[in-house]
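QUALITY CONTROL LOG
STEP: pairwise intake check
CHECKER ROLE: data steward
CRITERIA: each record must contain a sequence immediately followed by its structure tokens, with no blank fields

ENTRY 1 OF 2
RESULT FIELD BELOW
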Amino acid sequence: MARTHLTLAALATSAVPGLDIVEAASFSGGSQGDFDCALLTGRDGKHWIVRVPRTDKAELEQSADLVALRALSAGVRTRLHFAVSAFAGQTPIDGTRAIVYEFVYGSKIPLNGLDVARASSVGRAIAAIHALPTSFIADAGLPVLTPIECLRASVTVIDRAAATGLVPAALLARWETATEDSKLWQFQPTVINGSMSADSLLYAGNEITGVLGWHELRVGDPARDLCWMLGARDETVPEIGFDAYNEVRGGGDRQIRQRAKLYAELELAKWLLHGTEVRSTDIVDDAVELLSGLGDNVRSDIMNPIGAQTMPILAIDEVEAMLERSERAV
């Protein structure tokens, strides 16, 4: 049974000594959400969020998020032009923990609600994350993945999806060709959020004010944080987002969009695998339908495979800029 906002408020006062709450309201995503959550208002007008996980999966996510937020020190946060939530306190409850965070202000915008201005802001925000020094990730004991490890993770998803016998052959061939293209996987790993989606971002007007959900924080493939934009109905949204990103990062990763395309398509394979793991016929049927539609699109557009794109040779200033970024990242 879901905990009420009043119960959550009481837990918050136990978690944060001296917290004086004058108002509490439910902030959960409905009865099917992974967390019981409440928005709290302190007597000083400051706002807080308190969350209690409902499932083991949510508990693991919350624990990982807490490790990531602690790794994002005050010094690291000064490099970002948007807010990241801060841990305020915790208290045990029914075998898990109630965690209190400082509230991050802003409004969520669905993917298909993004316009050109917001897409540009998205690209710049993701670029800021990828510009962070990688050393603090290793210092915090968080994952540091090489390009070959990123490739192997994709191959594992493809192999597992293929074993279900439910993925169109054209898609499997497309994905396997991409994983065999060595040029596609020549990139400089960066700090990534790792679980970026439209639901991760908060806006005020056209500008991003905050980024949520850091439980997959790591060093890895920067294309991971960009792939979700490719799902926008308006094709100009990913175009503008990638352009804004490359303007900040310098465009040294010539194949980032191609890898992002692969990751976006593999999300359907992961949805299928999730359905088989939880034995949900509805999820499996939905994933099969989505994969079938993607397979039809692939067959009708054979001129656009996922593979390394032939690009002009880097100019000297571009090489120097890429080397400078690499030096700053370590």
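ENTRY 2 OF 2
RESULT FIELD BELOW
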Amino acid sequence: MILSTTPAIEGRTIRNYHGVVTGEAILGANIFKEFSASVRDIVGGRSAAYENELKKARTIAFDELAEQARELGANAVIGIDIDYETVGSQGGMLMVSVSGTAVTLV
């Protein structure tokens, strides 16, 4: 499965358009991770806990997107848009949503 943010794949022709596909993931960050991130925010540095959760959410969202495309008979998704949000009470959850157009390339 080819996944791309571009509207076309160089050297390949789009034979069929199958429609828009999406993938979403919402993951909660537990209290210990939030506390650790708060300390890092105060003293500086990166929050590995949040980075790992964000990476996990992104992987889940892309896996869902690819699976939807496969179910439609596509072999690629083009024009992918990736959005990141915090949701829930006091922004305690991380959300990643991806969308794109499922296509068959030849």
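INTAKE CHECK: passed for both entries
DESCRIPTIVE NOTE, ENTRY 2: The first helix runs from residue 31 to 43.
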